[in-house]
Amino acid sequence: MNRSIILLLVVLGTAEAFDAFVNVAFLVNSNGTAGTSRGTLVVDVRNTTTGYTTTGMVCDDYFGKTEADGLCRMAGFPGGAREFSNNRRSPYAVPREMYNSSGASLFALDNLRCPGNWSSLSECTANPIESHNCNFNEGVVLICRDEEDISLQISSVQLYSYRGNTSSNGTVVLLTEEGAGLIAAESISRTEAEVLCRAAGYDRNLAYGLARNTTDWRDQMSCDEMIRMNSTMLLDDIGCPEGATDLSDCTPTRASDRRSADSALWLSCGSSRRNEWVLSNLTMARSDPESGELYTGYRYGTLWATISNDYTGEVRTGLVARGPRATRDNVCHMASGQRGCSYDKANKSVKTWGYISVSCGYILDHSVDVIIHSLECPRGGPSNGCTFELATGDYAREDAWWMYCN
Question: pTM for this one?
Fold first, then answer.
């Protein structure tokens, strides 16, 4: 939806109480070009008592989101305001020289205040026309939500770690018909974090926040990966109401051009998303070939998992199929509490090293199986936040995952 300049025709009943209607609305942008949804707000006001009419800006004194939303709606943008600022801060402001040459008054309104969900300027108050104590830099700039905000189609939600691998925790990347994009973290609510985790294939959200503030840099998408995927800030907000369960319940808001990728959202998600099983314990194990005993709780050894079924009460203990290198640091941290993984191998590769793995003899004597594969864990999260697949196929026991963590 395009407008050249936001022109607001206001009829004033008194100096402070409005009896107002919108005739034409437009914003003046930095090029003085019409047809955009962002720019310096200009209003044309007329006092019904004196007939005096003037055109000018609105001062930012007392101006807030409530006023911005209502003025955007009056200007023909039903989604309200995405952002508001002033001439000093905004790159969309009309230049001072261009405005001065237009012949408009400096300010038409100051101290504009409106109640929540207002629909008519008759509900608002302001100083008398042209009565103000403002300078040019204090002119209000609006960025209104246009039709594109509503039409954005999100086809997939992925969480990316440092090396560009998808995981259960990482920087949130939206895949849309326009390409890959990021979400700003500052306005995300718990409800929206839950919706995004479900959209990514998980059951629940464990944590959310700024990607740059994660405790481990490996849990966020790298700059190189952002460049490779051509990822930019796409959304300021996904606009999910309280009680929303799906992205279809939400109205996303596009990010302003000034939004930095440093404000990208990070999520840690968890679930038994592909089955009813959860990981209840993960540790490192090794066996003593002479005594036949199994020992756990080390920083190196064969990965040893216990999974449980919340519905049937069944518990299984066994080996973990070796996973991708990209996930091993978080898995190591979960199993041993160490920072990360120095190296990992298939269990068969260390069987001659002595007492540092679960031996083939122990595996055969106790009928130990590989019970899970595709294991991924959130950094520092609870074990039940890990995701995995049940190992229902043929997985070689000697190819189970062995790690050295430090």
Answer: 0.41
